[in-house]
Amino acid sequence: MTEVNNLLLLAGDALLYFAVLAGLFRARHRLGIGAFFCALGVMHFIETYLASAFYIALPAGVVTSPGSSVLFTGKLMMLLLVYIREDAKVVRQPIYGLLIGNLLMVALAAVMRHHELVTFAAGRAPDFGFLDQMGALMVWGTAVLFFDCILIILLYERSRAWLGDKVFLRLALSGAAVLSFDQLAFYAGLHVLTGAPASVLVGGWIAKMGAVAIYSVLVGAYLFWLERPAGRHAAAPRISDVFDLLTYRERYEDLLARTGRDALTGALDRGRLETEGRRAIADAVDAGRPVSLLLIDIDHFKSFNDRFGHAAGDAVLKQIAREIMATVRATDMVFRFGGEEFVVICEGLAAGPALSLGERIRREIAMTGDGTSSHVTVSVGIATCSERDFSYDALFQVADRRLYQAKAAGRNRVVGDLLAPGSASVRLAHSS
């Protein structure tokens, strides 16, 4: 009966650990991710202490430590969650901080041995042997964690080729494989420093596999219901500076920064709209900030090309792109969607200001000559999301519908729409 109670308590420990840390991670846009990392780091000492000295019996003769099975396994799975929703550049921050902090603790403990101590009570003298042992275990454990993170990220990404988008299975597979390696590596240090028996190796591995199953379900549920991950890149990178190159998003965005602009207009291209634009909207929705999407189309552009030629049409496209980029805010993103259409994504811009911005763009373009006997105008459709659970696709569909309405109403006008769940849409229109 005691073993069953221990098993139930371990499951409760895992649920409590995940609930608190996942809550902090979910609130990172409001509190900053530092709150999550601080809580994760605070647990590092108790995790190592429990793994070295606190063991319990489970059914079937399993002997394990909550520090290893619950806290360390939970930490690694939470770091994988950070990678999935952020990137490897963010993941490496707490690992480097823990490693440097542990080394500092060992160094300070060595220096403190030389202090002249004052004893206030019998039996209260500092135990430098314990401090040395804990310091060595914490340094070793963090070094192993460094490699654990590399391996679990690589396996998670590689497993897409085998398992597709089955996130739970990918979490479970990568977690089980890496924590098997971790159990061997950490036990080696534990055995050298504390003389831990082989039963700790076997029992700890069994408990970690159970913990991986629990955390895989919890992380998978979190991703499914709270933060669905965007598509990742299927191919794993070659490694030199491991954490830099594991950051697929960083590598991809660096490439986009150099090549992802439309050659004619200088606006961001369609590929960057599909990556940066989608992510900007998802981040704003996750954080509860308003976000607006403006879809801008040049009126009668085909007939303009037919009358004045494609060279004149190209000049108009460049001029209109310049006008749009000069009118929007510095933080807004301007994309050439294709042909004569442009998309502007404005984080933090509510429906009213978005409509005003669309009208300013329309007015500036209408007043701009193009060097021919005619000039062009634009129609603008706007969708604004001020609530959660809306995506890029939903906003684009509404903006496209508003653009069609603007053209059907005579062109050279702006139609805006406030998209809010469970409420009637508010339609606004400006025209010349």
Task: Explain how this protein is built.
The chain has about 425 residues and is α+β, with helices and mostly antiparallel strands. The chain folds into two domains: about 1-225, no CATH class; about 270-430, Reverse transcriptase/Diguanylate cyclase domain (Alpha-Beta Plaits, 2-Layer Sandwich). The chain is about 65% helix and about 10% strand. The protein contains 16 helices and eight strands. The strands form two sheets. The chain has a six-stranded mixed β-sheet, with helices on both faces. A two-stranded antiparallel sheet has the order 1-2. A hairpin with a 6-residue loop joins β7 (about 415-420) and β8. The chain starts with a helix and ends with a strand. Residues about 230-240 and about 420-430 have low confidence and may be disordered.
Global shape: elongated
Query: What is the SS-derived class?
Result: alpha+beta
Total separate domains? 2
- The helix content, as a percent range, equals 55-70%
Beginning-to-end CA distance, first to last residue = 80 Å
SSE succession: HHHEEHHHHHHHHHEHHEEHEHEE
Strand content: 5-15%
Uncertain spans, ≥5 residues at pLDDT below 50? 231-241, 418-432
Give average pLDDT, whole number. 84
Largest sheet report? 6 strands, mixed
What does the radius of gyration come to?
29 Å
Number of beta-strand segments: 8
What is the count of helical runs?
16
Give the strand order, joined by hyphens, for the main sheet. 4-5-3-6-7-8
